[in-house]
Amino acid sequence: MKYFKHRGVEGLVYARVTVDDNEESGGYKTGEVKQLAPVAKIGKTVEASSNTEYYDNTPMFVTDAEGPDNFEIDATAFDLETEAELTGKTYDPDTGALIDGVREERYFALGYKTKGSDSGYRLVWRNKVKFSPLDKEHNTEDAGTGTTGSTLKCTGIHTTHVFGHGSKDAAGNWVKGTAKGVVVDTRDGLADTTDFFSKVQTPDTLKKKVGS
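The structure corresponding to this sequence follows.
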């Protein structure tokens, strides 16, 4: 058992999800991985609920349900082209303008790494998130040094695509299933993390480190 505290986040990247279905010719595909922005904080909350059923005046069953993941990301300000891409708006390359009109439905994969107090890392890919319009704050200049960036919010959900490595049964066999994402801890030294962020990682693309 290794004990540590979280102390750092970096390397925020993204890629647009171009295909997410269970058709034989489809599957799960993404576009190129791009750098997003320097990040100050990533907060994640999970919508979850449970229901206890009573029989003979005794609580006998608890039914759990897990909903989407809600992310709030504090980052530097984004250029207009990136903002338009993430939020489903239109960017006009001729004028450099973001057209704040009707949004197109777009989903993305989101990657980043978190650092621990022991200098170990956890590498994260969320396989399907949808971004909300950016929250911004603009203040008057004064004698201080205060600045503001952008707050990026997104919702993470399960893929439509069913991966071969969805979960394991009681016997340790892989069972097909959808996924929200994958997390690898470098402290374990088990997964091959070479070029981990050069392409989007899924439950089916993760490989065991040679020699582990």
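The two ends are 18 Å apart (CA to CA).
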